[in-house]
Amino acid sequence: MNPTRTLATAGRVLRQLVGDPRTMVLLLGVPAGLLALLGWVYEFSGLYDRVGAVLLAIFPFTVMFVVTSVATLRERQSGTLERLLTTPLRRGELLAGYALAFGVMTVFQTAVTAAVAVLVGLSFAGPWWALLLVALTASSLGTALGLLASAFARTEFQAVQFMPAFVLPQVLLCGLIVPREALPRVLELVSTALPLSHAVEAVTVVRDQARMGADLAEPLAVLAGMALAALALATVTLPRRTP
């Protein structure tokens, strides 16, 4: 892994993202705006505290998945990826650069979303840094899965179509609608294998507990491991170009 080539790739991707106003609105404005809208719907009641905290992990995860998968696919369709891979740049360095660039954007997205959530009245027993850490981890996981999904899509429409397959089952089983322990046993086991369930578990800990410990560290460690596994698999499966 060559740090110089990785950083150069990250810088190029960041310049492309910042130069696209629509993408920046989707990254920074949509998750925060949806949380604020939800608070208005629930009239900032106790129900908003329960549901809004969970969505603080789900919204960034979903947005980063869509943006990452579509942006990476564009690189293949334009031939940029094929040209880059004729240079000494390796696939691992390429994807690490993408992950780093989107990781930087994730930091800003997380900060804006969490700040808006707190400003509109979302209550948390835990410290603010734990809230940021959970949202950042969930966004990073969406980035990793978006890179993986882009390897199997041939068009941007297909990349967007992967969202129901990758994201919606996780939303249904993560504990947002029904607590995971109340699910049928088979679905509870499936939900344990899905990464978003652990993001929701982590944000629930921050919402309900004032002191952070193993209850937070364990789901975050699982999320980090799943994100690394997705990046490794994306490195192996990423084609040079779209046929």
Break the fold down into its secondary structure elements and pairings.
Blueprint: H1 3-18, H2 21-41, H3 46-77, H4 80-84, H5 91-119, H6 128-150, H7 156-166, H8 168-173, H9 185-193, H10 195-208, H11 214-237
Helix pairs in contact: 1-5, 2-3, 2-5, 3-5, 3-6, 3-7, 3-10, 5-6, 5-11, 6-10, 6-11, 10-11
Q: Report the sheet with the most strands, covering strand number, pairing sense and barrel closure.
A: none
Average pLDDT works out at 81
Give me the strand/helix succession.
Answer: HHHHHHHHHHH
In the predicted model, the low-confidence regions spanning at least 5 consecutive residues are none
**How much helix is in the residues?**
over 70%
SS element count, helices = 11
How much of the sequence lies in strands comes to under 5%
Please tally the β strands and state the result: 0
What overall form do the CA principal axes indicate? Answer: globular
Q: Any idea what the radius of gyration is?
A: 18 Å
InterPro entries: ABC-2_transporter_component, ABC2_TM, ABC2_TM_bact-type, ABC_2_transport
Protein name: Transport permease protein
GO molecular function: ABC-type transporter activity
Membrane topology: Multi-pass membrane protein
Short description:
This is Transport permease protein. By secondary structure, the protein is mostly helical. It contains 11 helices and no strands.
Q: What can you see in these coordinates?
A:
This protein has 243 residues and is mainly alpha-helical. It has one domain (3-237). 78% of the residues lie in helices and 0% in strands. It is built from eleven helices and no strands. The protein has helices at residues 3-18, 21-41, 46-77, 80-84, 91-119, 128-150, 156-166, 168-173, 185-193, 195-208, 214-237. The longest helix has 32 residues, at 46-77. The protein starts with a helix and ends in a 6-residue tail after the last helix. The relative contact order is 0.16. The model has no long low-confidence stretch (mean pLDDT 81). The chain crosses the membrane at residues 24-42, 54-73, 94-122, 128-152, 220-238. One of its GO terms (molecular function) is ABC-type transporter activity. It is found in: Cell membrane. It is a multi-pass membrane protein.
